[in-house]
Amino acid sequence: QSKGQGPLNFINEIVPHNIFDAITDNGKMLQIIFFVLFFGIASLTIMPAKIKPVIELFDGLNDVLLRMVDYIIRVAPYGVTALMAGLIIDFNGNASIFSALAMYALTVAAALLSIIFIFYPLFIRIFTKIIPSKFIQVMYPVQLVAFTTSSSAATLPITMEAVENKLGVSQETASFILPVGVTINMDGTSCYQTIAVLFIAQVLGIDLGIGQLLILIGMTALSSIGTPGIPGGSFVILTMVLTSIGIPAEGLALIIGIDRPLDMLRTSVNVTGDAVIAAIIDKK
């Protein structure tokens, strides 16, 4: 075997030799994730008083970056118009791209709806004593707010009220699980990102190997942990997922124009998933 092609080469590839070089190279996203995880684990071993300034620094940076994302999203429609115009030109006005987009949107919607109406009620039926039909009825107003706001964070107070008062989940469980779930439990986002990446790769004529598919599975699982709970926040993470498996980030132009309703739907899935987890944990 040639140098760098051994069975453990994958491990070597995810360990950054220079973290600053990895940050400036979109193709080294796995190295950044490895560094961040290692940094976080090491931070847990430091005395709270000493690590507090570091936590405050990153909290402040997080707030600033989220505000930057918010500003970008506000002007995104103008950029989307230009991107879609260029896309139509690249495909020589071929209408097949629009039928492909329609099929993509239907696939994402069907997958997300199956999570809400099949898998979540099944989990509720198996792991709790809550009647699935009651769960769906209680969560409908919450899902409606999530759908209209496209923000898990904005829906959180309503989710907590429904889970505590109507599903009988204890305040201790709800007040811990639901805020955490807003950040780290994004089933809808993971589902959407997987379908989006496969669609973009197919349209661009990029064949994904087994290794790339395994990276995709891992990246979508990891990237959903920490996706901003704001409208359009998943696009920031999707860019990372695309570049990590060698797909040009410009491929986002294919789907960004029709993403808003899908964003609304996957937010509904995310908040419903938070309620499911809270109910299951509370009944254990």
From TrEMBL:
GO molecular function: symporter activity
Subcellular location: Cell membrane
Membrane-spanning ranges: 29-51, 71-89, 101-124, 195-222, 234-258
InterPro entries, alphabetized: Na-dicarboxylate_symporter, Na:dicarbo_symporter_sf
UniProt KW keywords: Cell membrane, Membrane, Transmembrane, Transmembrane helix, Transport
Record membrane topology: Multi-pass membrane protein
One CC-aspect GO term: plasma membrane
Keyword set includes Transmembrane: yes
Keyword Repeat: no
A Pfam family this chain is assigned to: SDF
Main location: membrane
Name used for this protein in its record: Proton glutamate symport protein
Organism of origin: termite gut metagenome
